[in-house]
Amino acid sequence: MREITYLQAIHEAVDEEMSRDEKVFVFGEDVRQWGAPLGELKGLFEKYGPNRVLDTPISETAMIGAAIGSAATGMRPIVHIMFAEFLTVCWSDIFNAMCKPRYMSGGKIMFPVTIMSYCGAGISAAGEHSGCLDGMEMSIPGLKIVAPSTPYDAKGLIKSAIREDNPVQVFYHKNLILSGLKGEVPEKEYTIPLGKADVKREGSDVTVVATMLMTHRALAAAEKLKAKGIDIEVIDPRSLAPIDKETIFKSLKKTGKLVIMVEEPKTGSSASEIAAVVAEEAFDLLKAPIKRVCAPDTAIPFTPALEKVWMPDEDKLIKAVTEIM
Amino acid sequence: MREITYLQAIHEAVDEEMSRDEKVFVFGEDVRQWGAPLGELKGLFEKYGPNRVLDTPISETAMIGAAIGSAATGMRPIVHIMFAEFLTVCWSDIFNAMCKPRYMSGGKIMFPVTIMSYCGAGISAAGEHSGCLDGMEMSIPGLKIVAPSTPYDAKGLIKSAIREDNPVQVFYHKNLILSGLKGEVPEKEYTIPLGKADVKREGSDVTVVATMLMTHRALAAAEKLKAKGIDIEVIDPRSLAPIDKETIFKSLKKTGKLVIMVEEPKTGSSASEIAAVVAEEAFDLLKAPIKRVCAPDTAIPFTPALEKVWMPDEDKLIKAVTEIM
Amino acid sequence: MKIEKEKLLWMYRTMVRIRVFEERIGDEFAAGKIPGFVHLSSGQEANPVGVCANLRRDDYITSNHRGHGHLIAKGLPLDIMTAEIFGKKTGVNKGKAGSQHLTDMAVGCLGAEGIQGTPVPVAVGAALSAKLRGTDQVAVAFIGDGTLNTGRFHEGLNLAAAWKLPFICYCENNTWAESTNIYDATALTDISQRAMGYGIPGIAVDGNDVFAVYEAVYEAVARAKRGEGPTFIEGRTCRRRGHFEGDSHLYRGQEEKDECLKRDPIPRFRKKLIEMGILTEPEADKIEREIKGEMDEALKFAEESPFPEPEEVYTDEFV
Amino acid sequence: MKIEKEKLLWMYRTMVRIRVFEERIGDEFAAGKIPGFVHLSSGQEANPVGVCANLRRDDYITSNHRGHGHLIAKGLPLDIMTAEIFGKKTGVNKGKAGSQHLTDMAVGCLGAEGIQGTPVPVAVGAALSAKLRGTDQVAVAFIGDGTLNTGRFHEGLNLAAAWKLPFICYCENNTWAESTNIYDATALTDISQRAMGYGIPGIAVDGNDVFAVYEAVYEAVARAKRGEGPTFIEGRTCRRRGHFEGDSHLYRGQEEKDECLKRDPIPRFRKKLIEMGILTEPEADKIEREIKGEMDEALKFAEESPFPEPEEVYTDEFV
Ligand SMILES: Cc1ncc(C[n+]2csc(CCOP(=O)(O)OP(=O)(O)O)c2C)c(N)n1
Ligand SMILES: Cc1ncc(C[n+]2csc(CCOP(=O)(O)OP(=O)(O)O)c2C)c(N)n1
Ligand SMILES: [Mg+2]
Ligand SMILES: [Mg+2]
Questions:
Q1: Is A129 a catalytic residue?
Q2: Residue C207 Cα, ligand 1 centroid: separation in angstroms?
Q3: What is the enclosing helix (H) or strand (E) of B232?
Q4: Contact predicate C75/C97, CB 8 Å
Q5: What is the ipTM of this complex?
Q6: How far apart are CA A276 and CA A283, in angstroms?
Q7: Cys-Cys link to A181, which of A6, A84, B226, C193 (CB 3.0-4.6 A)?
Q8: Chain D residue whose CA is closest to A303
Q9: pTM reported for the whole predicted model
Q10: CB atoms within 10 A of CB A193
Q11: Quick check: bond before B242 cis, omega within 30?
Q12: At the fourth CATH level, which superfamily is domain D5-298?
């Protein structure tokens, strides 16, 4: 099968959906000439013109408002809110204005909005351009969240997100773009349903749930652990909301042991939510404490010397896995 | 001992700290004439004058900015951000601008800010004026969070919050104000350290961790459970960040069973975080699944007929406790 | 400006409808029949009516916490609206929204927002959609004076101006935001000047004169449809009641309150219509009686409707 | 306006210092010695220098992503600043901040903010504090043109105006926000008009003429100290380089780039100072040599400094 990059996969997903449905349009800061800061939307302006690809002022609350208002009236907006931290600038707009009305209106209104944002550390982008806010966003009822780790998942999930009638947050990891990560992606059209996890590696000793960049680190750790005779199963939830509990529980039936590895400060992270779900609904399957391999509860330091320590990595995962063996 | 209301306790705390330290001042929407919408700051303007009690425009981001800037330059601001949902309007300001700089600056700057907000459902204030955002705020590194359930705790915690050199969020529950809840509060000055839980009721069968209004519901449920021969211990964390793990673990040593009851949508709630901490650090003490008694993952419905169902209550707690007996 | 008789009568009827609705809701609230909070718009009726008299059913509005008048003027029936405010199953939003969040796309209302400022960017989004879809629809955001100081107002209005969207920001300046006077909350003495910061027209009108409101909005709608972009309109009006029911509004001087009662837009409009020969006294009285009857029915409908079943908590969300 | 010789020489020296710093940082970045992103302010030097020539050490500033010039003009030493940008332990913020978040209360800098708009309310808070404490300090927020469209700019400036705070909002209008032109992002053609929406003075100056900047800020500081409230100043300037290092800024026409190089504020100031008899050619050259030497030292310091120890991850937070 052909291989394309994570960046190309994102691009293809948006491109295909824009050509498939003329109600889909995309706007954000610097999407027109830059095709977004990392270039994943490059060429769409030339292809679809100024009515389908719009550069906005630096006005994140207006951008979410524009997404809501246009979604309510027949359009299917994709709004590019660059860095995950900028989502906090329009947090009320997402939490109150975008995610509550379907319920509050008794089903009288719906907002098919896709938000796309970069997340993730590892490129010394410092304290305000490096975060993953998955756990914080999971506290928002009414929002679906996807966080793909491979080109295949990125394309399939983004296409589903754009077709979804509820608001969806799409996170993609800067490192997976900038490292030029490649992967197999069929020529033929496909989508991946929201809310379905993927077992990235089968194993029998410990279940490791990991997202985005951490999925790759977990897979790398798996090889090292194998050398030590420990066989981990790596599950990538792909969707954080709703989350695919069944796939995790199924794995735990085999392993009885769970480590969750995500790139967020531990407290209030997506790892906490997953741990809570398991401790509540699959307690009887557990044979050991649930370990969370996360970042410390601090901002993200700039210097690579500290950023590297701040981020969860293979060694930390190996240590956690070993501790519960 | 004398009894005062929850509202009076909040008032006394702010009043005492303002008279103790002239750097303390308070501002917010409608704090001057109304003394805040529920009146907890009434009289402070008359007592301390226009330089210490200021009405702001409806500008939550400017309010947090004003708190940060004045805190960095020698003042000790208390900023009243009315309803918890309005915190999301200035979420970036709290998350990025207020809570990161101490760390990011390498300790070169500190912001002694107290934020006060109402939270809680039960008065049909509908979808945008009824929420508890404890879990969502716990995802913010660098922020301390207190959530008192009694007049005694309210006074002691708010005084400590105002004296704290890090940013502190104080939540107080609308229902505990409006119901006129009274409790013993000494005349003599006292403070309660941040980060210390309180065992509101001792018991031996199940540990129930509950906050704010839920503490009272848990205590009421305890009486009913007693009749069924089940003896629950009720722990009120009081501080959600940092959280007093030790007190919870200590209780679990006795009971081995944990139910967490908070007034938030379950996913991404403070209950999830507490459950995750226990599943990670005190797994060996557990003899049963950790139950979370929370609200559904939706906005809060207006009509009392549904709001009542939405809120966690004694029956739901009793059911959860009984399930793990 | 000439307004056809039919429309004038609709305007009068609608102003009376709002007044009767608000006063009766106030009574019902006082009687303990309405849960939560209500913010009434008595005294401000000329604003929503002067605005909506320029709108089609498929034009869009967004509203705020003081939104009953906006919704009624846009055509929401009183019965399902009253039932909603009573928290009943038959309410336009099944009782899930309540007074503060009334939403109905059937009349082009994208929602009443409790977070101040939000109505602006949301309506701007609807205006963007109209432009992209190539329709001649317009979108109006109703906000209060206090809301002018929110970031959302700024970002939304600037975006609409930059993109020349068919958008109107209509500000009901009743001079109060809860207990805070607008002239303490900004250095402006003429609120409509705020528009100058966006390079768009800022028009101040007497918001208690429905003709003045109508004309300003008429121009703004025409400008929007010509593709020239948004207009900011300040309707200078006043609140007859407290911020919400239960607010004794002691922070306002008695003089100011009396002044407001004197500026009542309804007798003023009625007098004018009679002078113009559009209406006679008995006809006007008849309208009032009819509306009261309509409101009696609405209240009856609301009272007799059941509350939603508990299971409704779990519907309307993908959980 | 007469400016004393001492100050003029400081201004010249500081402009050169910023230029040399920025260009050398650009080189080091290109050589792969600097982690992350850097946004250089080459060409904009007259703005921070014209501003800070009016400030005392105990006056406050807030800064943004393009902040090196602000910090240097406010007095931050080049060595600890360079070390910070290199991510070293000896950096002013122990390497935790980096280029984008330089913070040092010792020179009155409350922080450089990466979230556009934030510098405004934070500086407004410092101005509030000065007023409450009864000092005569002033606070300045440095922002770019793109930031004028953020809600924080609006809320902060309105608050400062309403409360008559000793605050100056200084906007470096280089006409670009990343790849987006300011005149596409707002309907205004004269940015300084935005001030009219707040009822405060809005002054436009040639931001490449340090005298013009100095004078406008001089007035604004005087106004602030008289208790008359904030001023908004637009410095019309241009960016010599891309948005950040690595940006090929193809979205700008070559003509515009050439034009910007021609408007260079440093030769212009130098020429003027020589005409005024404040400086001779050899003296000016000497200043340049000295600064280059200073920068060599700073780079050496940064390069030779160690990275922070891993345990530093866990300090400076209460966790
Ligand atoms: C973001 C936000 N902050 C504060 C409030 C609380 N609040 C509700 S109504 C109101 C005053 C609104 O004043 P105005 O916009 O003038 O409308 P009016 O009530 O006069 O109609 C305030 C401050 C809110 N709803 N949203
Ligand atoms: C809230 C927010 N949105 C978007 C960005 C991304 N961003 C960084 S710099 C920039 C452009 C800023 O333009 P301007 O204010 O004119 O400053 P300049 O770069 O020209 O100095 C943008 C959009 C940001 N940092 N913060
Ligand atoms: Mg008002
Ligand atoms: Mg710029």
A1: yes
A2: 19
A3: strand B232-236
A4: no
A5: 0.98
A6: 10
A7: A6
A8: D87
A9: 0.99
A10: 12
A11: yes
A12: Thiamin diphosphate (ThDP)-binding fold, Pyr/PP domains (3.40.50.970)
